[in-house]
Write a structure and sequence with these properties.
Organism: Dethiosulfatarculus sandiegensis
Radius of gyration: 16 Å
Keywords: Methyltransferase, Transferase
CATH architecture: 3-Layer(aba) Sandwich
CATH class: Alpha Beta
Number of helices: 8
Distance between the termini: 31 Å
Protein name: SAM-dependent methyltransferase
Strand order of the largest sheet: 3-2-1-4-5-9-8
Shape: globular
Bound molecules: S-adenosylmethionine
Domain Methyltransferase type: 53-140
Number of strands: 9
Order of helices and strands: HHHEHEHEEHEEEHEHE
GO molecular function, one term: S-adenosylmethionine-dependent methyltransferase activity
Amino acid sequence: MNSQTQAKPWANQKAVRHYDLTPDQVQQLDNDQTWFFMSRLVARHLPPGSSLLDLGCAAGSLHSLLNKRGVKMQYTGVDVTPELIQAAKHRYPEINFQVASALELPFEDASFDVVFSKGTLFVTQDPHEALLQALRVAKRTLIVDLVLNKPGEPDQTVTTEDRGSVHLLGPQGLSELGRALSGCRVVSNLLNVGLTHRDQLHPAYQKMNYLKHLVLCVHKETK
Ligand SMILES: C[S@@+](CC[C@H](N)C(=O)[O-])C[C@H]1O[C@@H](n2cnc3c(N)ncnc32)[C@H](O)[C@@H]1O
């Protein structure tokens, strides 16, 4: 990993606590539109017993949510923030969680049937590299979300108080995204998910004057 992509754990305790969800709070995730769509995409594209990697897993919300719905999988969760991985291991001791950066994944190519990442690629120092890493370790399906800037505006990095930088894709980021996904089939792309009610957004995002959420589900084409 070079100095530009050096991943930092989240140090802001308010942000860390926000993502340390109890099992009861996990039950409420269907009220969040992004969770609603993304968790259903996973359930649909994960044949029973498949392996899934959750990048930026925080305290294991996805595992808990799918487990309650009876989805059977071999789950691995990674997150760069040690406190969140500690909380995940404490809550779900039988599950595989580890501290790792999305920018330098300690896994072989094509190690997981499905790679999932919600709310994470665009808060890493280098979303493009994180996407390439996610594609590298995925055998078949990638389900991720990104955020876009206003049409015509350039790529932008907005510094937030509690979660570091948030990267909004402009024309450059979108053409890099297109190149990265050139060997893939886009199964689903949902725009604007989660942003119907701006005042329900996390305060870190409310200060951005425009923000569009993009949820992507792609299959790697096998020759
Ligand atoms: C906005 S939270 C999303 C958490 C969870 N996926 C969700 O949607 O509720 C972003 C998560 O990404 C983690 N994170 C930030 N940079 C990362 C990186 N380079 N590698 C892995 N995880 C990272 C943070 O620690 C945090 O848990």
